[in-house]
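Ticket #4471: structure export looks truncated?
Reporter: QA, pipeline team
Priority: medium

Steps to reproduce: submit the single chain below to the structure queue and open the exported record.
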Amino acid sequence: MKSVFKYNLHNFFYLPSVWWCGVRVKKVDEKKCIVNVKHKWINQNPFNSMFWAVQGMAAELCTGVLIMNEISLSQKKFSMLVLNNYANFSKKATGIITFECNQGLEIRDSIKKAIHLNKPQTLWLNSIGKNSNGHIVSSFKFEWTLKPKV
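Actual output as written to the record:
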């Protein structure tokens, strides 16, 4: 399992738009991942709130980090891809927005099943974004496919 620092360093070099928009991994363990992003000039829309795509980057990263952790622990090679996603925006995103996905154990089961059957698996992962008052500002669902490589 990589450290939070290593994930953020990886983002700096391989996902620079994530880095420059202020998206940061704050916590990751076997069960959940937490990602923060602060509303600021570089990631805002014309309505003085966070651009929807920045929220999407943070939400997707939250789910993707959990998958990458489980793939690393399996010591197998996988390809991973988002097939579909749905989003809902319920409140203006200002201040610090915290995204959380707590489906790490479901991911572990899908990885094990993919290895055992040697067949791709798909699963839906949820990432909920809340402001500093604990109000939900957006929620995302990502359908991921996990394919073991031979």
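Status: closed, not a bug. The export was complete when the record was re-opened. Leaving a note from the reviewer for reference: The beta strands are 24-28, 33-38, 78-89, 96-101, 121-130, 136-148.
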